[in-house]
Amino acid sequence: MPDQSSIVAHITIADYVGVEASGKANIVGAGITLVGFDFQQGVTTPFAIWVRLVSPMAIADRPAAEIVLVDASGQPVQVPGPMGEYQAVRISQVVEFPAATIPGVHIPNGALPSVAQFAVNFSNGLPLAPGNSYTWRVQLDHDIIASESFFVPQPPAGPVIG
Question: Each residue of 23-41: pLDDT tens digit?
């Protein structure tokens, strides 16, 4: 029986992600490395992340998975919370890796990998600083197992008059 050190992660930044009840992910505009910025609203354009954790087979452990947005120095990005306080952009959850099942079909443990996945859509964007690089990190019990970076551009310089 494998342990959580055999779990691998994949992360994709896209325009939109939806995951069906069957587990199939529908991803639009996958592979983004440049996230636009709405200068009137002060936030990025809408985007999404999709994280897929894969274990070779079911495992009994229930590791803590965390998806964290960090800046170029590796520090968690802080954004205003609902009460005005600043908080890290972080999603945490205990993850289960059950054996693959299909009703009416016998699938031996290990014949298919066990998968856990998350889709997070930032349909209102995030208040990130233009001109900076950011990285989404996937951590499993505090160990970084995947990351994906993107850049938020600044507006072009205006004309110089005078």
Answer: 899 999 999 999 999 999 9
